[in-house]
Amino acid sequence: MDQAALRILNYLLDNGGGNTGGRELNDSSAILLDWIKSTYGLKNIAYITTDDRSRQTRQPTYHCTYPLEWQEYYQLNMCEQHDPALIRGLSEFLPFEWGLLRKPTTEQRTFFRRYRDFRLGDKGFCIPIRDRNGSRALITMTTDIGGVSWRKYSHQYRAELQRLSFYMHERFSGVDPSNSGDPRLTARETEILQWAAAGKSTDDIASIFGVAPRTVSFHSENAVRKLNCVSRTHAVAKATSMQLILPTH
Length: 249
What we know:
By secondary structure, this protein is α+β, with helices and mostly antiparallel strands. The protein contains 11 helices and 5 strands; from the N terminus they run H-H-E-H-E-H-H-E-H-E-E-H-H-H-H-H. The protein has helices at 3-14, 27-40, 52-57, 68-76, 84-89, 106-117, 147-172, 187-197, 202-209, 213-226, 232-241, and strands at 44-49, 61-64, 96-98, 123-130, 136-143. Strand 4 and strand 5 form a beta hairpin. Helix 8 crosses helix 11 (232-241) and helix 9 (202-209) packs across helix 10. The longest helix has 26 residues, at 147-172. It starts with a helix and ends in an 8-residue tail after the last helix.
């Protein structure tokens, strides 16, 4: 994201965006998700978390752009028990693409059939998040793009959407990155996060600095620890939100 996009994101979230606790979206949250949809050409986007509040109330905290009719169908038919993206996403660590299962159960076949009836997007991917507070979150994004175009889209935007997802979790979960204190990253740790934000791998960064990959990993792990994150991708998102590194296009 560029600086203008980041400012829009901050404005939308700081002016009413917050937990819905399973209730209808407020205007600010809806505008934010619609902005992400239009910016990245998505069909739908949803965020759900099992944070402390949702565990206490037994109601998940979620934000989504799915039509109300689908949300009502989903809740009335307890689709969370059969939704493979949700079931897998809240137990996974790595992003994954979703689609039809090879051996779906009867309930899952019914779920997918109704999903197709609602025309909610045939292709998509899920980004699981686990933070150091014990919360788990899942961001799902769908699109009608298929075939070669989908592969190109995924290659172009997946890393950026993953960083954006971590950033959304920081804000939707009520964690204010500005209250994290001064992490006192070294110049090298900051540089490595900046290159990681640009999509460079550990080997790429090692080549840029003329050091061994294990040296890059050492500085990355230090940055992750100082920022109280669980991965380098999470650290990049948090460092961006704290303006420790520059957003990337």
